[in-house]
Design goal:
Helix content: 25-40%
CATH superfamily of the largest domain: Enolpyruvate transferase domain
Shape: elongated
Distance between the termini: 8 Å
Oligomer: single chain
Bound molecules: uridine-diphosphate-N-acetylglucosamine
Largest sheet: 4 strands, mixed
Strand content: 25-35%
CATH topology of the largest domain: UDP-n-acetylglucosamine1-carboxyvinyl-transferase, Chain
Number of domains: 2
């Protein structure tokens, strides 16, 4: 079992480049299936989820290589239109391949992605969108069989602005005949980025990143290049670490325009955040103060993905912080692990109350999910003594070479990779 050891209590300082966005690269890689040509995708983070997406592309018959942050995909040849259970289980967002496979092949067979650590994660809105575009969707036990001789543009009114459902709708619509209108679309920056890539494929997309997205199908180009946007959640993780542990860090390649809610919250905690082009500096000289109630919500609200890392900084604040999680039902699984590190947190349904304590202390803890694992890293950096974090598989899904990054910021960290018995 691999573990990450962190010796906390040190101020952080230094400069680090923010990785490319996980939540952007995955739908963009799925979109390469639409093309029937070559794509060069730059600024790809080295994450297990990215490798899972590459394995799906290879399984479908595409050529796909990852080298030095660039993924090259040749999707001229597609030999199959299914995703086996093993690949679906490796990454829940495998479901994002549904739209592109259906559009390209006229059929798609996937196994249902199970519920995951954040609580039930239904895909009913994805399936409804495929049906509206003309697909016949059958759910057979754990399998999902979708067929469409032809997809036709439609109006898709989403009852909630689901990120995944918006992306799958855009991806299927890109291969449909005619125009698709998606209303109440999710407005996350990663959707804007997917829209940019689709435009490079020759799809006429307008409004990606706003509540109404219009997609006119058609992929003419046979070559596309794209650079993935910076990861605003990875950036939030580093800001949270310096807010909790103190110090002075600079983040290069940070899109601060996409981080307004997050930057506002950390400023309220006392972090001095200055922006200069794509560089963000964060200075923290004293103990954080509570930021006021944090209510997560769809973009441009406070991101649910940044809730756990901010909670770790709130655990050492001078006073109490209330959290209200409105997006996922079960997004407090990191709380018992933060409590092991000395945090004082009570959870009641979707509300968590964090009473700041002066000092956390090192302990053995387990990452329960991706962002919950990141919260443990933040807390460990602020804690006195040694923390050992296990179940790194969750953290590896979203943070490339995290121990190296922390050390670049002066944190004392070591990853020990052991083979599982
Ligand atoms: C994406 C992000 C994830 C982030 C989340 C919310 C990726 C790979 N993942 O996940 O990191 O935490 O957005 O910003 O980009 N829902 C339904 N039916 C559906 C789909 C969703 O009821 O068919 C519900 C979900 O249960 C949840 C809410 O909608 O309560 C939001 O989920 P959604 O935005 O779809 O999240 P994901 O796309 O799974």
């Amino acid at each position: 079992m691999s573990v990450l050891k962190i010796w906390g209590g040190e101020r952080l300082s230094g400069r680090i480049a923010v990785q490319g966005a996980k939540n952007s690269v995955l739908p963009v890689l799925a979109a390469t299936v639409l093309e029937g040509g070559e794509s060069v995708i730059r600024n790809c983070p080295d994450l297990t989820d990215v490798h899972a997406a590459i394995d799906i592309l290879r399984h479908l018959g595409c050529e796909a290589e990852f080298e030095d942050g660039t993924v090259r995909v040749d999707s001229r040849k597609i030999t199959r239109c299914d995703i086996p259970d093993e690949l679906m289980r490796r990454m829940r967002s495998s479901v994002i391949f549904l739209g592109p496979i259906l559009a390209r092949c006229g059929e798609a067979t996937l196994s249902m992605p199970g519920g995951c650590e954040l609580g039930p994660r239904p895909i009913d809105l994805h399936l409804k969108a495929m049906r509206l575009l003309g697909a016949d969707v059958k759910e057979n036990g754990g399998d999902l069989i979708c067929k469409a001789a032809k997809l036709t543009g439609a109006r898709i009114d989403l009852p909630i602005p689901s990120v995944g459902a918006t992306e799958n709708s855009m991806l299927a619509a890109a291969g449909a005949e005619g125009v698709t209108f998606i209303t109440n679309a999710a407005r996350e920056p990663e959707i804007r980025d997917l829209g940019e890539y689709l435009k490079k494929l020759g799809v006429n997309v307008t409004g990606a990143g706003t509540s109404t997205v219009t997609v006119e199908g058609g992929t003419a180009r046979a070559y596309a290049e794209h650079t993935v946007i910076p990861d605003r959640i990875a950036a939030a993780t580093y800001i949270s670490a310096v807010t909790a542990a103190g110090g002075d860090i600079a983040l290069v390649n940070a899109d601060t325009g996409d981080m307004r809610a997050v930057i506002g919250a950390f400023r309220r905690m006392g972090a001095r955040i200055t922006e200069n082009g794509d560089e963000l500096r964060c200075v923290m000289e004293k103990r954080p103060v509570p930021p006021g109630t944090i209510i997560t919500g769809p973009y441009p609200g406070f991101p649910t993905d940044a809730q756990p890392v901010l909670m770790a900084a709130a655990a050492v604040a001078e006073g109490a912080t209330a959290f209200v999680e409105t997006v996922f039902q079960n997004r407090y699984r990191h709380v018992p692990e933060l409590i092991r590190l000395g945090a004082d947190i009570r959870v009641d349904g979707r509300v968590a109350i964090v009473e700041g304590t002066k000092k956390l202390h090192g302990a053995k803890v387990e990452a329960t999910d991706l962002r919950g694992g990141a919260a443990l890293i933040v807390a460990a950096l602020a804690a006195e003594g040694e923390t050992e974090i296990s179940r790194l598989c969750h953290i590896d899904r979203g943070y490339g070479k995290i121990a190296d990054s922390l050390m670049m910021l002066g944190g004392r960290a070591e990853r020990i990779d052991r083979k599982d018995k």
